[in-house]
Amino acid sequence: MLGIFRGDEIVVDLVNTQRASGLAQNDAARELRGKKVLSSLRRKGHRGSLLSHLRLPHPALYAKEEQGSLAVFGLFTFVIVMILAGIGVDIIRHETLRTELQNTLDRAVLAAANLENSFDPEVVVEDYFAKAGLSQYLTNVKTEVSGQGRRVTATVSADIPTYFMKFAAVDTLSLASHGAAEQGLANLEISLVLDVSNSMNSSNRIGNLSIAGQEFAQTIFDNSAPDAVSMSVVPYSTQVNAGPTILSEFNVTDAHSNSYCLNFTSSDFETTNIEPKDYAGAKYYQQTLAFDPWYYNDFNQGTILEVCDPHSYNRILPFSNSLSEVQSKISNLRADGNTSIDVGVKWGAALLDTSAAPLTGALIASGEVSPSMTGRPAVASASTLKVMVVMTDGVNTTQYYMPSNYRSGNSDIYLAPDGRVSFSVRKRTCSYYSCWYETKWYEPQSRNYYSSVYGGSNATPLTWPEVWQRFTVESHAYARYYGSGSSNDYYFWTGATRTGVSGTTKNERLNDICTAAKNNGVLIFTIGFEAPNDAEQVLISCASSPAHYYDVDGLEISDAFAAIATKVTELRLVE
Questions:
Q1: Helix 487-496 to helix 473-484 angle, to the nearest 10 degrees?
Q2: Kind of pairing, strands 284-287 and 251-253?
């Protein structure tokens, strides 16, 4: 109960705080008794403290009263929720402004750093903030220009007054942010790996490639500072002709000077690394033997098409910084032979690998490469972009090798002073009564037999490499067959002097070397030029992504090279 005195009048208000219905009658009774007590006190003239005359309920009764407790709890909860919601509002306001400032800052510095922008970078940044209505928050803009690049930095700051957090003694929320953008032309290293197999002679493919490749080089060099680009052209067919200077930098077995190719093993395709002879612990590579595994051209007439193309026009052009040199190389390519995409990509990747740096030094010393290319290939980084473009019109086909037994040493074929050769055969001779075998010396040009070596004591044995410069594999096998009269000799010699790696194995090798190159930071574009369906998946797998593969026909090859050149130019921007 609560009693209130006002003058001589005493107003007693009895408030029931526990039950609204069940205790209504009890409350009324209490009120009536209270009024009677007050009336009695007035009649007796008592004044003073009401509390001294009232008989109040025992305090224990109040402890049992619960009605109204939820209202108090709800009031406190409401206040807490309102405070938390208010804090959320302040935080959202802070985050909204922070996001808006950061986005504007990022756009502004990127636009200002763009090398194609001719306006003052600071003016560009200020204009972005003015148009966004945020100029008051921009505190500083700085531009640095160096070499081929530009760097723009800017800072923003703000103090946001709070609406609710100030009740917790937090009057403002502060923010600050920094943005920087740098655009420059990265050094560019490119390997153009180009198919010059025999099928490229069809439908003027080699001509269309020549135009497209030259246009590609033009675009790249036109958008580059002097000496910022090194471009290697790697023509490939059955093999890749590295040229005498490059090959002289390797340890090789069965060395010769008839051609300049290397036989890589399967493990060589698992890495982009290549080991010149100055490399610590450099391995020995097997030099490809100069021989013709395909054609028949009668006897002692030389080769028609060798596994390793010996012609200078199809040699690798390494580390060139000259547009005219690159265009001249591409325009003079000639097509023949099988298709070894894996070998082409191996060389293309190797010329982008830092392990090839000794080659650069040797080529600079020989005058074949500009001294400005010193230090290339460099380590792949934000300042050095490495790109390989792989073009083919077909799939990997058989790559032929000469077995070890017939790669070196003296043969059983003798050369006479007049240039004719002879070798011994077991000739079957028959009389009217019987047949027998006797050893004769067969001279294939005249198809005559002699009782001793043709040329007598003046005849000298040919080495096996010399034999393969005079005979194709087919011509040699036929000569043995004609000499002995047994077809078994033909089949023996073709099998013994010609072996190969299948297209399936070469596809696996291609996948390995493409994976290794991509893992080393090389960006790979592939072009299927009127290629069969079988080639598509192989080329897609080799490319950096399916989007880096181009399937083209005819003159579309120029569009593919142009698109790649544009992408490469854009990717050179360091941002």
A1: 150
A2: parallel
First and final C-alpha spacing in the chain: 79
Q: Quickly tell me which residue has 């929320």 as its tokens.
A: 173
Signed CA dihedral, 182, 185, 186, 190: sign only: positive
391 vs 235: CA distance, rounded Å: 10
- Identify whether the C-beta of residue 386 lies closer than 8 Å to the C-beta of residue 352: yes
In degrees, rounded to 5, the angle at the alpha carbon of residue 273 between the alpha carbons of residues 267 and 277 is: 100
Res 278: pLDDT: 83
CB 372 within 8 A of CB 229: no
Q: And the tokens for 274?
A: 């290549």
Residue 6 above 80 pLDDT?
no
Q: How far, CA to CA in Å, does 25 sit from each of 2, 377, 455? A: 19, 103, 149
Token readout for 174 is 């502060």
CA gap 237, 255 in Å, rounded:
21
Q: How far is 31 from 15, CA to CA, in rounded Å?
A: 10
What is the band of 10 on the pLDDT scale with cuts at 50, 70, 90?
very low
Place of tokens 């590609």: 216
38-47 burial code (b ≥16 CB/10 A, e <16) = beebeeeeee
Class of residue 540 by CB neighbours under 10 A (exposed 0-12, middle 13-18, buried 19+):
middle
SS3 category, 502: coil
Q: Please answer whether residues 104 and 129 qualify as being in contact, where contact means their C-beta atoms are separated by less than 8 angstroms.
A: yes
pLDDT score recorded for residue 66: 59
Q: Is 254 left (phi over 0), alpha (psi -120 to 50) or beta?
A: left
What is the rounded radius of gyration, in angstroms, for the C-alpha atoms of the chain? 46
Kind and range of the H or E run holding 456: none
In this structure, what DSSP letter does residue 282 have?
A: P
Residues 151-172 pLDDT 10s:
889 999 998 888 878 777 788 8
Spatial CA neighbour of 254 closest among 408, 402, 470: 408
Q: Tens digit of pLDDT for each residue in 311-324? A: 999 999 999 999 99
What is the pTM for the complete model shown? 0.72
Cα(343)–Cα(347) distance, rounded to whole angstroms?
Answer: 6
Domains for the chain: give ranges and CATH numbers. Answer: 2-67 (no CATH), 70-183 (no CATH), 189-289+310-400+501-571 (3.40.50.410), 403-497 (no CATH)
Decide: helix, strand or coil at residue 361: helix
Residue-level pLDDT at 2: 38
- 59 token code pair: 């305090």
The residue type of 253 is: T
Hey, what are 193's tokens? Answer: 């790996």
Q: Is the pLDDT of residue 19 over 70?
A: no
Tokens read off for 438: 């006797």
Question: Are the beta carbons of 332 and 195 closer than 8 angstroms?
Answer: no
Residue with tokens 């004769």: 440
